[in-house]
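Exercise: predict the fold of this chain.
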Amino acid sequence: MQAHSYGELKLFVDGEWLGAEGRVTEDVINPATGEPIAALPHATAEDLDRAVAAASRAFKAWRVTTAYDRAKIIRKAADILRERTNEIAPRMTMDQGKPIGEAIQEVHISADILDWTADEGRRTYGRVIPSRVSGARWLVTREPVGPVAGFTPWNFPGIIPARKISAALATGCTMVIKPSEETPSTVLEIARALDDAGLPKGVLNVVHGKPSDVSEHLIASDGIRKITFTGSTAVGKQLAVLAAQAGVKRTTMELGGHAPVLIFEDADIDLAIKVMAFAKFRNAGQVCISPTRFYVHDSVHDRFVEGFAKAAAALKVGDGLDPASQMGPLANSRRVPAMERMVADAVQRGAKVKTGGERGSNRGYFFAPTVVSDVPQDALAMNEEPFGPLAVTARFSSFDEVIEQANRLPYGLASYAFTQSARTAAMLGDAIEAGMLGINNNAISMTETPFGGVKQSGYGSEGGSEGMDAYLVTKFISHS
C-alpha cells in the first residue's frame, strides 16, 4: 500500500490562505487508523466577518461578470481538478475513509459538476410575456440572490460542495462555505483550483470552526442573503429557524432520508441483488440516498436475503488506501456504536443477523457489511436512518401494504423498486412519497438531474437545471 502525505490545512478568505497561527485548531482523524493526520485551524469571529465582507464586496463585480466569462473560470477549475486527481483522492480517503477508487471517482464527478453547471449558468433565461396593455413590454428576468452561506457534511466532501459552489458561482452569487471539519481537504482543493483558474478574490471563501458557532455567526450576518445546507434533519430545522429569524433568508435544505426498497414478486432478483449490494455498501452505507429498508415480497424474500447476504459477506473491508479494499471504515468513532445499537435492538425484537453485525479490527472505525432479516416495524433501524453498512428486511404480500410501509416515515428523499411490470412501475411513480425513485436501477443522482426530497427530507433541489433556481431571484419588469 503506497504511503501518501496529507498536507497542511488552512482557511481561504478573500483570496488569502490563512494558517493555524493565532487560531484554535482541532485534529483531523484518519478513520482507518483512529490517529490524527493534520491540525485544522478554526476561523475567528474576525475571520468570519472578513469572509462575509469579502463575499459582499466581490458580489458587486461578480454579478455583472458575464455568464460566459464566469463559465470559463469554472470550467478551467474543473480541468485543474482532473489534473490533480492523484493528489486529491488519497487525501479524501485519508480523512473520510472511502476506498481510493470511490475517491478518484468522486473527484471526477466533482469536476463534471463544475463543467455542467458552468454551462447551465449561461442558460438561466428570462422570458417575454405578451402584454395586455398597448405599448407596454412585460419582461421576466433572473438575477443572482447574493452572497450565500453553504454548509456541507462529511460523507461526500467533493460532490456536495461542488454542487453548491458551482451553482452559486455560475449564477453570479458569491459564497462563504463551511465544510465538515472531519473532511476538510477536498473543498480546499476545489477552492485552490478555482483560485488558480482566475476566480476573483472574495467570490469564494472557505472557513472552519465549531459548527454551531460558525452557522449562527454566518446566518445572522447582514451580508448573507441565502443559506444552503446538506445534513441531518435535526440540524436543518435549527438552521431554518435561524434563517427565518435573521430576515426570512432563502434556504435550500437537503436533509436525512431512510430509503425504502420495494422488491416485488416479479422482480429480477439477481439484478436486485447486484444493484442494491453496490448501492447499499458504497461509502460504507454513509449515503443519504443509501437503500436501507428492504421490503421484499414473501414469495421471494428468502431467496433475495440469501443472495444479498452472500454478496455483502464477500466484500473486502479494509483501509481505503489499499486498492483491494471494497469498503472502508466508517467516517468517525460515533458510527460504530450506532451500528451495534441498531443491530442489538433488532435482534432483541426477533430479527435474524444473516451476515456481519460486528465491529472490525481494534484499529480504526470498521464495521462489517451487515444484513438483518425479518425486522419488525418498531425496531430502531426501521425508524431511524442507520447511515452505515446495515440493511434490514421485512416481508410484504400486497401493493397497498408495501406502499403504506414505504411512506410510513416522515422522510422522503430516495426510494427504489424492482419489478418487471410496467403497470406496477407506473403505480409506484404515483404512490411513492419521495423526491427520487429508481426503478430497476440506482441511477437517481446525476449531474444533470434534480436532487432533493419531500417531507422532513427537506426542500429545494440541487443538481440539474432545477438546482440553479435557488440561487436566482425572479424579477418582473413592466415597461411602457
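Check your answer against the key: The chain has two domains: 11-255+458-479, 259-446.
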